[in-house]
Specification:
alpha/beta; Helicase, Ruva Protein, domain 3; two-stranded antiparallel ribbon
C-alpha cells in the first residue's frame, strides 16, 4: 500500500508576493526575555493592555523565535498575531500601537509556547502560502514549501514555450498531480493556466478532503478531479485517461527521504524537528534509498503521457541523479534536473520518447 503524499520539507522562505519577511520592517525593541504577554510588564502604572501593543508583541515573538532557532521568525510572529487578532499581516503595521486584549494575550502566549516546541506555525494557524496562494493545511498533509514551486515554474516555462502545450492559457492542456497532498501544485498550475484541466491523486482520504477545500477556495474545482488511490493506478478507471497517452504533464511530489537521511544527525541532511515531530511520517519516508515510490511512478507514467509529454518528480538532492538515470532507461529522453531556489538539485524532468 502506498503512503499519503504531500509537499517538500525544506525550510520556508518569505519570498512570494504578499510575503512580509524580516528584511522589510524594523525589529522593534522589546521587553526583557523573561517578560511575556500574560505577565505584568515592568512599567509600573501602565496597564498590561496599554503596554502589550502589536508593535511590542511582534518584537517579543521575533526575539523568542530567533533565540530558539525557528525559521523566518518575523514572518511567524506576524502569522500568529494576525491569526489571533483576525486581520491580515499588513494591518498589523497600520495599527502598530493597538493594545492586545487579555484574551488575545493569553491565546497568543499559548500558541507561542507550542511554536517554541517546534510545532509548525502553519498548522497552528491552519494556513500556508504557495506560489502566492493561501492554502488550508493541517497535520494530514505536509506544509507546502518554496522548493516545490520549482515544479510549477518548470511546467509554466515549458507550456508557454512549446507548441501544442496550451500556451499562456493552457488551452486543451491536461495534467495529473500525483501525491497531491494539500493540492498545492495542481491548484497553482490551474490558477496560472485558466483553460487547463487536471486530475489529482492521493492515497490519503484526509489529504484529498483538504485539497478539495483548497480547490473550492481558489475556484478551480470545476477543472480539477480528485482520485483516491495508489500513485497512477486510479487513472485506470477514470474516463479522462481512457485509451492512455492523453496527458501533457504528470507532476509528483512523493515521499522521498531515504532512511539514512531520516536517521542522520548530520545537520547538512538531517530532518528538522518540526518535520520529524509534527508532519506526517507516512508522507515523508521512502525506504532505504528514497526511491520506493519513484520507481513505480516512472514505470507507470509513460502509458499515460502523450509523446513529448513531461514527467516532473520532486526528489531528494542525494537521489536526483539516480532518478534521472531511471527515467532514461524507463522510456524518457532528455532527462535532466532542475535546481530549486536554494540551488539544490530538486526536480527530475523527463520527456516521453516517441
Amino acid at each position: 500500500m502506498r503512503l499519503p503524499c504531500g509537499t517538500c520539507l525544506f525550510p520556508l522562505r518569505a519570498e512570494r508576493e504578499g510575503s512580509v519577511g524580516p528584511s522589510r520592517y524594523t525589529v522593534f525593541v522589546t521587553n526583557s526575555p523573561s517578560s511575556t504577554p500574560g505577565s505584568r510588564p515592568s512599567n509600573a502604572g501602565i496597564s498590561a493592555e496599554e503596554s502589550w501593543t502589536t508593535r511590542r508583541l511582534l518584537g517579543w515573538m521575533s526575539e523568542a523565535f530567533t533565540r530558539n532557532g525557528l525559521d523566518s521568525p518575523r514572518l511567524f510572529a506576524e502569522l500568529l498575531l494576525s491569526h489571533v487578532i483576525g486581520c491580515d499581516r499588513l494591518k498589523l503595521y497600520m495599527d502598530a500601537d493597538r493594545p492586545a486584549s487579555p484574551l488575545e494575550r493569553q491565546t497568543l502566549r499559548d500558541l507561542v509556547g507550542r511554536a517554541l516546541k517546534h510545532e509548525p506555525v502553519q498548522y497552528l494557524v491552519g494556513e500556508a502560502w504557495f506560489f502566492g496562494l493561501p492554502l488550508h493545511v493541517d497535520p494530514s498533509v505536509l506544509i507546502p514549501r518554496p522548493s516545490t514551486e520549482t515544479i510549477v515554474e518548470q511546467v509554466l516555462l515549458h507550456a508557454r514555450a512549446e507548441p501544442g502545450f496550451g500556451g499562456k492559457t493552457g488551452e486543451g492542456l491536461r495534467l495529473v498531480d500525483v501525491c497531491t497532498g494539500s493540492g498545492c501544485i495542481a491548484i497553482a498550475l490551474l490558477k496560472q493556466l485558466s483553460k487547463a484541466t487536471a486530475l489529482a491523486c492521493d492515497i490519503s482520504a484526509e489529504a484529498l478532503a483538504l485539497a478539495r477545500r483548497n480547490a473550492e477556495r481558489h475556484r478551480v474545482s470545476e477543472r480539477l478531479d480528485f482520485l483516491d488511490g495508489d500513485l497512477l493506478t486510479p487513472l485506470d478507471d477514470h474516463p479522462a485517461a481512457a485509451g492512455g497517452g492523453g496527458f501533457h504533464y504528470i507532476v509528483a511530489n512523493p515521499p522521498y527521504i531515504p532512511d539514512h537521511e531520516w536517521e542522520s544527525a548530520d545537520p547538512a541532511v538531517a530532518v528538522g524537528r518540526n518535520v520529524r515531530d509534527f508532519e506526517p511520517h507516512l508522507a515523508l519516508r521512502a525506504g532505504p534509498d528514497g526511491l520506493q515510490y519513484i520507481r513505480p511512478l516512472i514505470s507507470q507514467a509513460p502509458r499515460h503521457l502523450r509523446t513529448g509529454g513531461l514527467l516532473l518528480v520532486e526528489t531528494a538532492a542525494s537521489t536526483a541523479a539516480a532518478v534521472c538515470e531511471m527515467m532514461t532507461t524507463g522510456g524518457f529522453q532528455h532527462a535532466r534536473v532542475a535546481n530549486d531556489g536554494d540551488g539544490l538539485p530538486r526536480v527530475a524532468i523527463g520527456v516521453k520518447a516517441g
